[in-house]
Amino acid sequence: MTTPVLPSPCSKRLGLLDSSALAQAVDARVAEAWQLCREVHPDLPRPGVWLDLRGAGAGQANMKRGGLRFNRLLLEDNRLAFFEEVIPHEMAHWLVFHLENGPRLKPHGHEWKTVMRELFGLVPRVTHRFDTQRVRLTPFRYRCGCREHALTRRRHTFVLQGGCYRCRFCAETLVYHAEDGSEGRI
Ligand SMILES: [Zn+2]
Ligand SMILES: [Zn+2]
């Protein structure tokens, strides 16, 4: 049996947050998880936090960027699970990355599992069971001059047949960039 070490967030309160308050709450939860990690690794740098991960992945620890990325759509629909599991999961990656031989360790290997169990008091799971329908409905990523857009298959087909969409913010034509994967990894 494991008992979560971080305090349990109130599901009802989380459900009421608008998107900017939710983003702030994610920052605060990351800080909480980071403080816990600093008990075993006092020099651990504080990670940046971004809600720009796309596709079916819930989160990602990204060394190059220097922080943690989370999937905003999945976060909005699965708030409690993000606070209880996904944020500690990515913070555990962040901690393991910063161990002496961290970059050479397996992402979900022994060290990561130990951090999840012993430090966070969580079961070390590698996949999530979130409903990714909203993500799957718009898997086609397009770019303009100012941001990324997610299009449905119907709209993507329209573009392939010579159609064209413009960004309503910068008015540039949307250019196809990539299709999101459908794996539900954390
Ligand atoms: Zn634009
Ligand atoms: Zn992971």
TrEMBL record:
Residues 24-177 form the SprT-like domain. It comes from the Bacteria. GO terms for biological process: response to stress. InterPro entries: SprT-like_domain. Pfam families: SprT-like. This is Metallopeptidase.
